[in-house]
Input
Amino acid sequence: MEYFIDELERLYKKGINFFYFSDDTFSVDKNRVIEICKKILEKGLKITWVAISRVNYMSEDILSWMRKAGCIQISYGVESGSKKIRNLLNKKIKNDDIEKAFAMTLKYGILPRAYFIYGCPGETHQTIFETIDLIKKIKPLVIHFFVLSLFPGTRLYEEYKKKMKITDDIWLNNIEDIKYFETDPKLSREDVLLFGKTLRTRYHELIPQIVDAIELVDNKEFYPLHADFCSRLGMTFDHGDYANNDAILGKERIAEKLYIKALTYHPHPSAYLGLGILNQKKSAYHESIKILSKGVQYFPDNEQLNICLGVSHMNVEDFKTALSFFLKFQHSKQALELIINCYRALNDVETASTYQKKLES
Output
């Protein structure tokens, strides 16, 4: 553990502040996890990190310490909502454990991400709807759906080799993977494609409800972390992974609600910025100025907030006030371009020319 912490600290001092803990046994030893989290806090490592875990290894104590130490996301392998299929995949977890882990993870402001597999042995429309029913219960904020592939070391792979009378030399051929459905005459390509489409379509329809159902632990110690969580999630719908997904309806409304929710917990620059930009998009510049001004009061040195606020003032033709926000950041190309535009709008050609030379140099 000491080596692990020392490596984190070494990389942190080099300017790295985001980490992926790629260890699905990370949470097996509860005391080890908590000790690592305490060391991260003691050393003042202001990092964010994501992890993977099994649902039956989580507890509120572990999740509480993980969140305080910078964990923002945990990925869980759920695989299927069908107990029968999970057993066939040797995924020995119970629905109750799955539901409990996802509820606890979200409660502490950690984004729970789920992995599901379809096109499995015995997969039918019924098992797909069992998966959808489980999704409704666990409310994951991110899901990755995969078609089942056969990998060395699994029972299905060994059965495939025996059935086809082949050896591991098959991997010497130019192949990326072996899809299970291609080995099972009971599953057609059309069925599997339909299963995937059904899962994704239904999940995208559920996302607004899933976001609305978010409940975070009511503990003041976590309020700043909750504000960060809601802000990050809002950005996902505003200009992140979900922003360009046309299957998700009302993305800007979802983002707005999340930014507002963030600010009920604690001031956060991303929440103010997100609300300011959303109002700019609606041409509600005075409302944008009102929101961004509050943000700048809390975070006077935040470049993005200041520039966004200046842009809103430009849109109401208050160029002198806009300049007061841009002039703080003359190291920024964006700020210099806006400064030039403001002086031109004020018919101060000489000063605009001075800043133009500064920009070009």
Observations:
- The CA atoms of residues 23 and 82 lie 26 Å apart.
